[in-house]
Structure prediction request, 619 residues.
Amino acid sequence: MSTSGGAWLVAAAVWPLIAMLSGFASGGRHASRVALVSMGVGLVIVVVIAVLVLAGGEPLVYLLGGWAPPLGIGLRADGLAVVMMLTTVVVIGSAGLYARADFGPRAGLPETRQSLVFWTLLLGVWGAMNLVVLGRDLFNLYVGLELLTFAAVPLVCLDGRGETLTAALRYLMFALLGSVLYLLGAVLLYGAYGTLDISLLAERVQPEPVTWAAAGLITAGLLAKTALFPLHLWLPPAHAGAPAAASAVLSALVVKGSFVLVIRLWFEVMPGLWNVAATQLLGVLGAGAILYGSILALRQKRLKLLIAYSTVAQIGYLFLMFPLAFDVGSARLEPGIALTGGLLQLVSHALAKGAMFMAAGLIAVALGHDRVADLGGVARALPISVIAFGLAGVSLVGLPPSIGFVAKWLLLSAAIATGQWWWTMVLIVGSLLTSGYVILVLMRSMSPLADPLRPVVQVARSREAIALALSLGALLLGLVALAPAPSVSIISTGAVAAETLAGAGR
Amino acid sequence: MTTVTLFGLCGAILVGLGLYSTLIHPQPLRKLIGFNLLGSGIFLIFGVIARRGAWSGVGGDPVPQALVITGIVVAFAGTALAAGLLLRLFEETGTATLESPRAVDPASDRSEP
Prediction:
């Protein structure tokens, strides 16, 4: 049955795509206006959904055409979907406002193909993200994932240089391989259980070889798309080579789309299928990502590559939730504070990394380069951008009161509560390394120059303000997360995680 | 051996060949062809599962048949995008490999391991 208000889910899924098509049809001169207006409307839609879910205390469901699964497909907004949709619309909207100067209409100049493509793809990423978080049918989700990939890959090579084309092509190869592995897993599940609906599959799956094979294939495919170490090779050149607004969206959102599906598969479809080894393996890969990504970030000579490697590291934190949420007694993944911590890490990284890439983009424009060693004097020339970078860094490191602090605190508490001390070491070392590269950049940019720095290009204060707003958001959301929250189940399998969150925060 | 088993095995072999060439070959074009082979294997498995779900009067379960059409369209779109990128890469740089991309401007000194 569709719940009342379920039709809003259709609006959330379809509205960005309508905007994408009308932006495309209206041409490069008007695409930016269409995109920005539609993002405003989209924000309203998502807020309405959030209010309905909070007020009702249970997920919104919409069955397309009134056909119930397994025949039809459903859309469903639970806590995870609402949080993801809110984060998505905020980051996409900020990236849109930020990108107006690069891709917006300019008086007296002809419209460019690049700007038309940028706005179309930006709206495409938004629509695909909403589809991926709302979808309940594994094949429908596959189409959403592909939409996400096809919108994200060309964003990497908008400038058409050989270097970025290579990065885009490598990204596409990883993504295509990931998606066919996912598809193979999905078809095996359909062959065994006769349905692709997440809720129905959760009732029907049995611990048997075909399920393990399917789960392994789907997970491997999704990890390639999420760029978890050691499948991260495509990420740094792709995210560092894209235009700043696109980097922000790619790093903040696109890799999270496939991660949401990992959560759905592990926590919702087959929470009882896993054992200690499988969950620890994901945790080990996450720990590898944290250490490897952070150390390489420290060694980068270019600011955007440094931030991209930081993304590799921060993705690792997301995967620590799996060993921490595994309850040895019942041999199930239990949604609790570990899941909540991972989810907050997702939001924290989305906001902070969006802000960082935007600030780095402005610094690169103003200096004409982004060599970390030659950042001297930037703090004086572009103080707001450097502050935005620093505040975003605070959230990545996990200092209070940022939301990154709450996320890492919850993960730490879960590690201590379950007696898995080795993950606390990873969390602490990871935070130290993160503060290392953040402080490195801040020190370089604050080192004084004999002559005051003369920016090659003047950057608008309003663009710096957007980066600052995102990083302030990441900083101050931590205070909101500590307040007692209304209880909403994060995923459909129960667990009033928001309540535990409020309890653990105090 | 039943038809279903035979075609299932064929699908598995195609998946294996495709996976091998996608992972082993460094040239993107070969990877792309491997991806298509892998996709064909999966679509064949879709067909096998449709046939296995046959009941009296119906030759096969229609759901996988519907899915496979969408799957083919998506795989085609992915292939077209990759081929387009590859052609553009060849126009820009004169090579079509993913090995050691040239630094285009001196400002972008790469420091990857």
